[in-house]
Design a protein that fits this description.
The protein is α/β, with parallel strands linked by helices. It has a domain of about 150 residues: Ribonuclease Inhibitor (Leucine-rich repeat, LRR (right-handed beta-alpha superhelix), Alpha-Beta Horseshoe). The protein is built from six helices and 25 strands. Strand 1 and strand 2 form a beta hairpin. The protein binds 2-acetamido-2-deoxy-beta-D-glucopyranose (8 copies). The site of one 2-acetamido-2-deoxy-beta-D-glucopyranose (NAG) has 3 residues, from loops. This is Piriformospora indica-insensitive protein 2-like.
C-alpha cells in the first residue's frame, strides 16, 4: 500500500525530470559534442595504442571514427583543452562484457607516450600469457606523461615481468601507483622516493625482493595506503616509517621481513590496519604501539615475535576489532585488559606459549565472534557461560591446553561443549571429549573477518558505473523522443 502511494506520487516528478533531460538534450545538440575537433596526431596515437592491446583483428579506426564523440571507446575518456579533445583515461581489460579485451599478443605501443593529457592508465588482466614472449614495462618515455599522469595501475597481468623502471620516479604528479598480481621482480628503485605526493602505493602479489628503502619512507609523507604484501622483501622495517604519519593502512604481510618493529611505528596516529603476518619479525611488541589509537586491525600471526601481553596497555587501542597473534611465540598470561577492548570481534592467541587462567571477562565482549586459544599451556577452569559456547560454536577453540578443563552450571547439550577440553573432574557428568568430531584446525580461518589485502581500486568500478548510468539516461531519452 505504502509503496503504491509513493510511486504514484513520484510519477509527475519523474516526468518532469525527463522533460528537463529532453530540454537539455535539445539545447546541447545545437553544438554537437563531436563538433570539437581532435588533433589528427592524438587520434592516430590513440588508435595505435588501442590496436596494440586488442590486436590486429580489430579495425579500431573503422569501428570508432569519432572516439571522443559519438563512437566513444569503452574505457577511454576524453576532455577538452583549448577546444580540442584529448585522451585523459585509458582502462584496458575485461571489466564489462563489452569492454576491450587484450589479444594474446598484446603489446605497448610507443604512441602511448604521445597522449600528453593522459591522467589515468589502467591495464587489467591484459598480459596474461606466461608462455608468449615476455612483456616488460617500457623503461623509457614515461617522463613525457609526467605533467598529468595521476593514476597508474597494472593489475593481474601474469605475463608482465621485469622490474619497475626507475623512470617512474619522474612521475611526480602520481597519487596512485598500483602494481598488483603481476610477475614483476627486482628491488624498489630509489627513484620512487621522488613521488612525494603519492597517496597510494600498492605493490602486492609480485616477486619483489630487497629491503624497503629508508628514503621511501622518509619522503612519501602523504601516503595513506602502503601495501607491499605477498612479495619477498627482506630486512627490518626502517625507523623512517615514523615519517608516514598520514598512513591509514600498512600491509606488509607475506614477506621475509625480520628484526624488531621500530618504536617509530607508534607515531602513525591515523593507522587503522597494521598487517605483518607471515614474516620473521621478532623482539616482541614495542610499547610504542600503544599509541596507535586509531588501530582497528592488528595482524601479526606467524612471526617469531616473542615477548608477552601483560606489559602492554591494551585498553588504549579502544577501536581494535581484530587482534591476530596466532603462532607468535608469546609467553606469559592473558591479561584481563584485553577484555577492555570492547569492539573486539576476532581474537586469535592460539599456538603460543601462554600460561595461566583464561580471563572470564572475555565472554562479555559484545561483538566477539571468534576466539582461538588452542595450542597453549593455559590452565585452570574455563568458566564461560553456556550461551557463550552456543553462540561461538566452532569459532571458539581451546583444545591442546593439557591442564585446562571447563565448568558449567547447566548441563550443556552435547554439541556445545568446547571441543577437545575435558570437563572439570569434580563435576564431570558426561564425557564430551569426542562429542564434536568434525571440528578441526582446517575450519579455522574460513569465517574470520580479516580483510583481504588492500589496493583494489574503487575508481575502476566507479568509472563503469558512470558509463552504465550514462547509457541508461541516453537510452531513456531516445525512447522518450520516439
Ligand atoms: C579500417 O576502417 C577504415 C574506415 O572504415 C578503412 O578505411 C580501413 O581501410 C580499414 N582498415 C583495415 C585494415 O581494414
Ligand atoms: C626526497 O624528496 C626530495 C624532494 O622533496 C627530493 O629532493 C629528494 O631527492 C628525495 N629523496 C630521495 C632519496 O629520493
Ligand atoms: C589524521 O586524520 C585526521 C582526520 O581525518 C586528519 O584531520 C589529520 O590531518 C590526520 N593526520 C595526519 C598526520 O595526516
Ligand atoms: C593510555 O591511555 C591512558 C588513559 O587513557 C593514558 O594516560 C596513557 O598515556 C596512554 N598510554 C599510551 C602509551 O598512549
Ligand atoms: C574509533 O571509532 C569511532 C567510530 O568508528 C570513531 O568515531 C573514532 O574517531 C575512532 N577513534 C579513534 C581514536 O580513531
Ligand atoms: C605446561 O606448564 C606446566 C606447569 O604449569 C609444565 O609442567 C608443562 O611442562 C608445560 N607444558 C608445556 C607443553 O609447555
Ligand atoms: C593437538 O596437537 C597435536 C600435536 O601437537 C595434534 O596432532 C592435534 O591434532 C592437535 N589438536 C587436537 C584437537 O588434539
Ligand atoms: C561460516 O558462517 C556461515 C554463516 O554465517 C555458516 O553457515 C558456516 O557454517 C560458517 N562456517 C564455519 C566454518 O564456521
Amino acid at each position: 500500500m505504502r509503496n503504491f502511494i509513493s510511486t504514484k506520487a513520484l510519477l509527475p516528478l519523474l516526468l518532469l525530470l525527463h522533460l528537463q533531460f529532453l530540454f537539455l538534450y535539445h539545447v546541447c545538440s545545437d553544438t554537437p559534442v563531436s563538433s570539437a575537433p581532435m588533433e589528427k596526431a592524438e587520434q592516430e596515437a590513440l588508435y595505435m595504442v588501442i590496436q596494440g592491446f586488442v590486436g590486429e583483428g580489430w579495425n579500431v579506426s573503422g569501428l570508432y571514427p569519432d572516439p571522443c564523440g559519438w563512437t566513444m571507446i569503452q574505457g577511454v575518456s576524453c576532455d577538452l583543452f583549448d577546444n580540442f579533445w584529448y585522451i585523459t583515461d585509458i582502462n584496458i581489460g575485461p571489466v564489462l562484457e563489452n569492454s576491450l579485451e587484450c589479444s594474446p599478443d598484446a603489446k605497448f605501443t610507443p604512441q602511448l607516450f604521445e597522449l600528453k593529457h593522459l591522467k589515468s592508465l589502467s591495464i587489467f588482466n591484459c598480459f596474461t600469457s606466461t608462455s608468449h614472449q615476455p612483456t616488460t614495462i617500457s623503461s623509457q618515455n614515461w617522463d613525457k606523461l609526467a605533467k598529468n599522469l595521476e593514476t597508474l595501475e597494472f593489475r593481474s597481468n601474469q605475463g608482465l615481468n621485469g622490474e619497475i623502471p626507475s623512470i617512474f620516479g619522474q612521475l611526480t604528479n602520481l597519487n596512485s601507483l598500483v602494481l598488483v598480481d603481476n610477475a614483476l621482480t627486482g628491488v624498489i628503485p630509489q627513484e620512487l622516493s621522488n613521488l612525494v605526493h603519492i597517496k597510494r602505493l600498492v605493490l602486492s602479489g609480485n616477486q619483489f625482493s630487497g629491503s624497503i628503502p629508508p628514503s621511501l619512507t622518509t619522503n612519501l609523507t602523504e601516503l595513506l595506503i602502503m601495501d607491499l604484501s605477498r612479495n619477498s622483501f627482506t630486512g627490518a622495517l626502517p625507523a623512517s616509517f615514523g615519517y608516514l604519519t598520514s598512513l591509514i593502512k600498512l600491509d606488509l604481510s607475506h614477506n621475509i621481513l625480520n628484526g624488531r618493529l621500530p618504536n617509530e611505528l607508534g607515531k602513525l596516529q591515523n593507522l587503522t590496519l597494521l598487517d605483518l603476518k607471515d614474516n620473521l619479525v621478532s623482539h616482541g611488541l614495542p610499547q610504542s604501539l600503544q599509541n596507535l589509537v586509531s588501530l582497528q586491525d592488528l595482524l601479526l600471526s606467524n612471526n617469531p615475535l616473542g615477548g608477552d601481553l601483560v606489559s602492554f596497555s591494551w585498553e588504549n587501542l579502544s577501536n581494535l576489532t581484530t587482534l591476530d597473534l596466532s603462532n607468535t611465540g608469546i609467553t606469559g598470561s592473558i591479561p584481563g585488559t584485553i577484555a577492555g577492548l570492547r569492539r573486539l570481534r576476532y581474537l586469535a592467541l592460539d599456538n603460543n606459549h601462554l600460561t595461566g587462567n583464561v580471563p572470564q571477562k572475555l565472554a562479555s565482549l559484545p561483538w566477539l565472534n571468534t576466539l582461538y586459544l588452542n595450542g597453549n599451556n593455559l590452565t585452570g577452569i574455563l568458566e564461560f557461560p553456556d550461551d557463550f559456547y552456543k553462540r561461538m560454536g566452532r569459532r571458539f577453540a581451546s583444545w591442546n591446553n593439557t591442564n585446562l578443563c571447563y565448568s558449567t552450571v547447566e548441563t550443556l547439550s552435547v554439541g556445545h561443549a568446547p571441543y577437545g577440553v575435558q570437563q572439570c573432574k569434580h563435576e564431570q557428568h558426561v564425557n564430551v571429549l569426542s562429542s564434536n568430531p568434525n571440528v578441526g584446525d582446517g575450519d579455522k580461518d574460513q569465517n574470520s573477518s580479516i580483510m583481504a589485502s588492500l589496493g583494489f581500486s574503487s575508481s575502476f568500478h566507479e568509472f563503469w558505473w558512470v558509463v552504465l548510468v550514462q547509457e541508461v539516461v541516453v537510452f531513456t531519452i531516445l525512447i522518450l523522443m520516439l
